[in-house]
Design goal:
The structure holds two protein chains of two kinds.
Chain A (H helix, E strand, L loop, with lengths): L3 E4 L2 E4 L4 E8 L5 E7 L6 E7 L2 E5 L6 E7 L2 E7 L7 E8 L13 E2 L3 E5 L1
Parallel strand pairs in A: 2-11
Antiparallel strand pairs in A: 1-3, 3-8, 4-5, 4-9, 5-6, 7-8, 9-10, 9-11
Chain B lengths: L3 E3 L4 E4 L4 E7 L6 E7 L6 E6 L4 E3 L2 E6 L4 E6 L8 E8 L9 E2 L3 E6 L1
Parallel strand pairs in B: 2-11
Antiparallel strand pairs in B: 1-3, 3-8, 4-5, 4-9, 6-7, 7-8, 9-10, 9-11
Classes of the chains: A mainly beta, B mainly beta.
């Protein structure tokens, strides 16, 4: 069982719908990430939150809106998506230190939310 | 030049074979290195961290060569269950960035 929980596991939505993906972790990690992964490609970073503040936005379109209500929760709000946004959306968490210790900052991933936009 | 490069494969090997993957990285200030394993339609899972001194976990050995800026993963006595995509991840750099950079992954197929 993964220590990062994502819901829903599967989501089908139309281009006019508004939906949200949710992510929760109780490992005390203070960095949380959203990744998007298409088939046969590596995960592509979208957003990073560090201590509940947005620290990285990798030029993601505004139809994706992240939110970090507290240190354990991370949401991704979806609105007016396009069919090409269909992908596996992965949440991950880690300790947000500078990584100066070898092996530090291991990313732990959730099982993902598989999104289909019709 | 991509920041983290891997041969996508696939590497197609028989059970019991030894197989090795390399991953090169461009940022000489990188500080943390990992191998993740990803099964089809599943999330990436940490296989092992990679330490400067090299480290071993059962049939798996990881090594880091900072001078040449590459990491390697050696799998001995391959099992059918080792079939997966192996992702190289590199973190850290100038300013202590903790943002991980993924390679594109190397596909391994172990056949009977």
């Amino acid at each position: 069982d993964t220590e990062v929980t994502q819901t829903p596991k599967h989501l089908v939505m139309g281009m006019t719908n508004k939906k949200s993906l949710k992510c929760e972790q109780h490992m005390g990690h203070r960095a949380m990430y959203w990744y998007k992964q298409k088939a046969k490609k590596p995960p592509e970073l979208m957003f990073v939150y560090s201590y509940e503040k947005l620290s990285i936005n990798e030029s993601v379109p505004s139809r994706f809106s992240p939110e970090c209500p507290n240190s354990s929760l991370l949401n991704l709000h979806l609105h007016a998506l396009q069919p090409e946004d269909s992908a596996l959306y992965l949440c991950a968490s880690s300790r947000p230190t500078g990584g100066k210790t070898e092996g530090a900052n291991v990313l732990t991933f959730g099982a993902g939310s598989r999104l289909t936009v019709l | 030049r991509k920041e983290v490069e891997q041969d996508p494969g696939p590497f197609n090997v028989p059970e019991g074979a030894t197989v090795a993957f390399n991953c090169t990285y461009s940022n000489s200030a990188s500080q943390s290195f990992f191998w993740y394993r990803q099964d089809c339609r599943k999330e990436p899972k940490l296989l092992m961290s990679v330490y400067s001194s090299g480290n071993e976990d059962g049939r798996f050995t990881a090594q880091l060569n900072r001078a040449s800026q590459y990491i390697s993963l050696l799998i001995r006595d391959s099992k059918l269950s080792d079939s997966a995509t192996y992702l190289c991840v590199v973190k850290g750099g100038t300013g202590g960035s903790y943002i991980p950079t993924f390679g594109r992954g190397t596909s391994l197929i172990v056949h009977p």
